[in-house]
Structure formats: structure tokens, C-alpha cells
Amino acid sequence: MFKKKKRWHAVSGQELTEMDKRVMYWENKGKLVPTRDLIKTPEQIEGIRKSGIVNTGVLDEVARQIHAGMSTLEIDKICYDYCVGHGAVPACLDYEGFPKSVCTSINEVVCHGIPKEEDILEEGDIVNVDFTTILDGYYADASRMFIIGKTTPEKEQLVRVARECLEIGAEAAKPYCFVGDIGHAIQKHAEKYHYGVVRDLCGHGVGLKFHEDPEVVHFGHRGTGMLIVPGMVFTIEPMINMGTWEVFIDADDKYGWEVITGDELPSAQWEHTFLMTEHGVEILTH
């Protein structure tokens, strides 16, 4: 019989810390706990924080310029120019074949929308702009919703509730909580409005790579998923659909990236990169 491999090991020759004790307690209870490499050092956190400042600047610049009549390809240029102009690299560009620097997802496109010259923003559209920055090897990831001009009350409510889901998820993220605690809080709020919470995509650890553990699902039950401890960096990015939670890949997308709602009703998403501290989460992408 082989013993189950431990994910968390005490540091040889050092006294157990309070974190060690708490993590090992939950691991002995059969819970999924992080490996030590998911706990960022102060130097790494500072690097991610600086990347987050550039990432925020990118989205601020989009907010300043976005308007009806512009193409999503113009948004891509805004993002690329700002990012590169501040010494950083767009993480999406050429990532697993993704052809542009940013994801621009309009109305029923849930995520991974590819900027195109022919995709023109129109009055009443809602669009998610999702950008990830690499600065000096450190990653930061965030997205915002933009309402183009005046839209319907139904779309306005969807955008508002999606943002509330992000905020509620962040409030549920406490030191030594579980990923499922975050997802449970988000799902509970979204379903008050009879909205669907996308299940096929999730948030993720981030910082030293584009995607790290844990997978941060936006639905589920308390006490499930990975334990989250101080020093972990991750995104919360709930994708909230006006109708069904089900999605499909756009058959007309030759790159195989664009995700569409199953009933082609609108979707909304907000995202931040968070650092877990001893007192709760700190937003690294304002």
C-alpha cells in the first residue's frame, strides 16, 4: 500500500507556524490544501502588485476612450499600446493561439471574444474587456463591463448583479476559507435574479504564471475545493448569464476561443486579481 502524498510539508529544522498547523489540520481531515509554491513571497507579491497597476491603467484607458462606433480592434490597439508603453507585455497575445492582446466579449459572448475590425460597438451593447499584464515576469488579470450609451433595464441589471457577484465573492473569501465558500456566495446571489452562473469556466491562481492553482469556481457548496491561505494570489471572475448557465464555442470562430451563452441571451463578467492576507483579500487590480 502506498501512502497518500502530502501536499503540505513542514520546513525541515523549523518550528511549525500557525499556518502550518492550520493547513495540516485540514489536510488530515481529507481537504484539498495548497502546495507551498502557491504561497507568494513578499518580493513576488510586490511584483504582482506592480503588474496590477499597469493592468488597471490599461482598463482605465479603455474606459476613457470606449464609445459607440468604434471597433473592438481599436480597443485591442489601445490595450496593446498602453501595456507596451509601460514596459509590460500583453499575456493574451499568442497565448495558445489567441491572436490578439485582449478579450472583447459583446452581449451574448461570455468570454474570450476576439477583437475584430468588423465588430463595431453599438448603442445599447454591453461589452466585457478582459486584459492580463506581464510585467517583469509577474502576471495580473482583470476585466470590466462597459455599457455603450444607453441600454435596456434588463442589461443594466445584469451588469450590476454581475459586479455584485464579484464583490460578494470577495467578501466570502476569508483566510482559511475554501474555494467553494466563494462559489456558494456568488451562486446564491445570482440565482435570486434567476441568472445562470457559468460552470465551464472559472477563476484561477495567478502571479508567476497566467493560470495556476486553485481553480476558483463560481458555484457550489461551502467547504469544498481548495483551502485558501494567506499569501495566495487568485482571480474571482464570475460569468453571469441572463438565462441558462450553459455555453458553447462559436462555430464561426476559426481559433476556437469565443464562448457564447447557450440560449444566446446576454452575459456579464467582472474580474479582479486578489491577494489573500491574514485579514481578508486585497485587490491588486483596482
Question: How would you portray this structure in words?
Answer:
29% of the residues lie in helices and 24% in strands. The chain has helices at 18-28, 42-65, 72-85, 153-172, 179-192, and strands spanning 89-90, 103-106, 109-111, 126-135, 138-147, 177-178, 196-197, 203-205, 212-216, 227-228, 233-236, 239-241, 247-249, 259-261, 267-269, 272-277, 280-283. By secondary structure, the chain is of the alpha+beta class. The protein is globular and about 65 Å long. The strands form six sheets. Strands 1, 2, 4 and 5 form a four-stranded antiparallel sheet that branches. The protein has a three-stranded antiparallel sheet with strand order 3-14-13, with no helix packed on it. 48% of the residues are buried. A hairpin with a 6-residue loop joins strand 8 and strand 9. The mean pLDDT is 96.
Average per-residue pLDDT, rounded, comes to 96
Major sheet description: 4 strands, antiparallel
Give the overall shape.
globular
Count of discrete alpha- or pi-helical segments spanning 4 or more residues = 5
Structural class, by secondary structure, is alpha+beta
Helix content: 25-40%
Overall strand count:
17
Instruction: Provide the β-strand percentage band.
Output: 15-25%
Q: Please tell me how large the radius of gyration is.
A: 19 Å
**SSE string, helices as H and strands as E:** HHHEEEEEHEHEEEEEEEEEEE
How far apart the termini lie comes to: 50 Å
> Which blocks of ≥5 consecutive residues have pLDDT under 50?
none
Secondary-structure blueprint of this entry?
Blueprint: H1 18-28, H2 42-65, H3 72-85, E1 89-90, E2 103-106, E3 109-111, E4 126-135, E5 138-147, H4 153-172, E6 177-178, H5 179-192, E7 196-197, E8 203-205, E9 212-216, E10 227-228, E11 233-236, E12 239-241, E13 247-249, E14 259-261, E15 267-269, E16 272-277, E17 280-283
Antiparallel strand pairs: 1-4, 2-4, 3-14, 4-5, 6-10, 7-12, 8-9, 11-16, 12-15, 13-14, 16-17
